[in-house]
């Protein structure tokens, strides 16, 4: 149902370097790009994540309560994405681990612009 999610940035080059490295952990690469917008995905018909300099020319800001969840294929991939994010300068918002007893396993972090993301897996692997 979701086609893509867009996050605002005030530094497109810095955001591009962060997401190039981070999303490569999930097999994603750039699929669309302009001078103020970049989108990453794993296939043209799969959901994508993008960063953009706001159209109105005002500074990008973080939405309170907004979070982007990145699906990972297993718990080890959740750990790898979390570690990559922190190595790239992201801030910790919750170390990898189980959340509840439903098999939901996640790690939370904020990108270089303060946008909140998580990497998650549901299952036993």
Major sheet summary line: 4 strands, mixed
What is the strand arrangement across the widest sheet? 1-4-3-2
Beta fraction: 35-45%
Would you identify the regions where 5 or more consecutive residues have pLDDT less than 50?
A: none
What is the chain-wise order of helices and strands?
Answer: EHEEEEHEEE
Question: What's the tally of helices?
Answer: 2
Average pLDDT, rounded to a whole number, is 95
Total count of domains = 1
Q: What's the level 1 CATH class?
A: Alpha Beta
Distance between the termini: 25 Å
Give me the CATH architecture, please. Answer: Roll
From the alpha-carbon coordinates, what is the Rg to the nearest angstrom? 14 Å
Structural features, described:
- By secondary structure, the chain is α/β, with parallel strands linked by helices.
- It has one domain (4-53, 68-122): 2,3-Dihydroxybiphenyl 1,2-Dioxygenase, domain 1.
- It is built from two helices and eight strands; from the N terminus they run βαββββαβββ.
- It has helices spanning 12-24, 75-87; strands at residues 4-8, 29-33, 37-41, 48-52, 67-71, 91-98, 104-110, 116-122.
- Strands 1-4-3-2 form a four-stranded mixed sheet, covered by helices on one side.
Concise description?
The protein has 125 residues and is α/β, with parallel strands linked by helices.
List keywords for this structure.
single chain; about 120 residues; alpha/beta; 4-stranded mixed β-sheet; 2 helices; globular
Task: List the topology elements.
Elements: E1 4-8, H1 12-24, E2 29-33, E3 37-41, E4 48-52, E5 67-71, H2 75-87, E6 91-98, E7 104-110, E8 116-122
């Amino acid at each position: 149902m979701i086609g893509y999610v867009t996050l605002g940035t005030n530094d497109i080059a810095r955001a591009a370097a962060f997401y190039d490295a981070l999303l490569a952990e999930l097999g994603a690469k750039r699929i669309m790009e302009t001078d103020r917008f970049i989108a990453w995905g794993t296939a043209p018909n799969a959901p994508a994540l993008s960063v953009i300099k706001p159209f109105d020319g005002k500074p990008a800001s973080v939405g309170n309560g907004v979070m982007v969840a990145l699906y990972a294929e297993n718990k080890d991939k959740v750990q790898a994405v979390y570690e990559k994010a922190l190595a790239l300068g992201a801030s910790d918002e919750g170390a990898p681990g189980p959340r509840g007893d439903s098999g939901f396993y996640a790690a939370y972090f904020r990108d270089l612009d303060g946008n909140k993301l998580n990497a998650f897996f549901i299952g036993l692997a």
